[in-house]
Amino acid sequence: METPDTQILFALGRITSALRAGLWQSAGELGLVPAQAEILTRIARQSARPADIAAHLGVSAASASDSISSLVAKGLALRLPDPEDGRAQRLLPTEAGLCLAEKLTAAPTAVQGALAALPSQDQAALLRALTLIIRTLQEARAIPVQRMCVTCRHFRPRVHANADHPHHCAFVDAAFGDASLRLDCGEHEAALAEEAAALWRRFDAA
Amino acid sequence: METPDTQILFALGRITSALRAGLWQSAGELGLVPAQAEILTRIARQSARPADIAAHLGVSAASASDSISSLVAKGLALRLPDPEDGRAQRLLPTEAGLCLAEKLTAAPTAVQGALAALPSQDQAALLRALTLIIRTLQEARAIPVQRMCVTCRHFRPRVHANADHPHHCAFVDAAFGDASLRLDCGEHEAALAEEAAALWRRFDAA
DNA sequence: TCGATTCAATTAGGAATCCTAATTATATTA
DNA sequence: TAATATAATTAGGATTCCTAATTGAATCGA
After folding, report:
1. N or C: which end of chain B has fewer CB within 10 A?
2. What is the pLDDT, as a whole number, of residue B199?
3. CB-based contact (8 Å) between A143 and chain B?
4. pLDDT digits (tens, 9 = 90+) for B94-135
5. From the list B38, B58, B118, which residue is nearest A129 (CB)?
6. Best residue of A3, A7, A146 to probe chain B, by most B CBs closer than 10 Å
7. Does A102 contact B at CB distance below 8 Å?
8. Rounded CA gap, A171 and A121, in Å?
9. How confident is the model at residue B145 (pLDDT cuts 50, 70, 90)?
10. Are A106 and A122 found together in one domain?
11. How many CB atoms lie under 10 A from the CB of residue A6?
């Protein structure tokens, strides 16, 4: 318990516990368990395959299938055949599922409150650090690839002198700062390999 | 998915998944499941009561009791009567449990790798932000109280001009920075209520 | 001091997740 | 066309997780 690494890991563990407890609480009030709530909010945002869900949650395909079946049995989700691949399926929320997903994302949790209470400079620094971590985890194949700024061909890191808005998005043609980094952007287009490496170095530089 | 809050929550979710998957992996190689691994490493660091374990993990006392029983059945932990309270127990690791706990903490995970790869400035900023979050979660009674710098009577936030080492610990009489903030310090002594509030304001100030 | 209440912990009962291994059906490749 | 790979589920079993009820010990008030 001495290096920053160890302290950070410890801190993440504590916050993870709070997140799980909060999810049991808020999901439980709506008749769901955490895994079901996570899957439902995910497919409410965007349709996904069972394999995506499993990768997103970091569980086996069999476990994901279990939880999906629970949602289907409750009439909150549908399994439809995937038009692009006869082996695959597309998961969609039902009307009731969408309604419940909105309540879930709206439900305030203790962690959300703590984030809101964070000074905006710390918020930006936190988001920046987490973005870097997620990028590294992606490269290590520990988590599935995100549609995030730091791998997007529209991203221009550190091109402005303004310390609060050093980055630029070529898609919306606007300057922005660490606080506005996206991890799941609808306009994301993957940069080519060498281009991505250059973005990475530029953003990462301390 | 627009405000920093939402992005941060999303990011924490992704990292949580990676943490859980890593724990299934590393604990699984040693014949444990995540909950058992977390309890074992916790009691290896310091003896604890079942109620502490439950609060630490954010689960019910009954669930904690289940997992503790699993550890006891495997010969990795012992339940001893608590000398201070006849209703309570003290949990201790056995020799085999200590040995396993060391292997667990030594096992490198993907998230640990990602943390190590983080530039040290981002590490410090991350630890600072997480410390603030944990402090808020404690106040909201969402997680149990930690033996952390920001609630310690030896802590002197922002007393030095040196930007890298602005804080001071009166116990060891040394300057330190955000990167060295402790969340579980052996020398922690809780500050009085009003004193604690003053520390908080001073450290929090952006 | 004695009863009532509170508290720490476990047990009981049951639902849900999680795993690996095996199976089915579709895609891809040689 | 045959062999292999992939997407998903099912089967079987271990474990966690919940709430409610129980046991024993500590504390509080009359």
Report:
1. C
2. 84
3. yes
4. 999 999 999 999 988 899 999 999 999 999 999 999 999 998
5. B118
6. A7
7. no
8. 25
9. confident
10. no
11. 15
**Domain range for residue A42?**
4-112
Distance of CA A85 to the CA centre of its chain: 25
Can you tell me the mean pLDDT for B168-189? 87
- CB contact under 8 Å between A116 and B5, yes or no, is yes
Residue A184 at interface with chain B, using a CB cutoff of 8 Å: yes
pLDDT at A6: 87
Q: For chain A, how many structural domains are there in total?
A: 2
Per-residue tokens: B188: 């922690």
Measure, in angstroms, how far nucleotide C7 C1' is from residue A156 CA: 59
Considering the domain architecture, whether residues A60 and A154 belong to the same structural domain is answered as no
Distance B183 CA to C10 C1' (A): 32
User: Is the Cβ pair A18, B122 closer than 8 Å?
Assistant: no
Q: What is the pLDDT of residue B1?
A: 47
By the CB < 8 Å criterion, does A96 face chain B? no
Test A15 with B130 for CB contact under 8 angstroms.
Answer: yes
Q: Which of A92, A112, A132 is the last residue of a domain?
A: A112
Same domain, B18 and B104: yes
- Same domain? For B106 and B29 the reply is yes
CATH number at residue A95: 1.10.10.10
Categorize the per-residue pLDDT at A206 as very low, low, confident or very high, splitting at 50, 70 and 90.
low
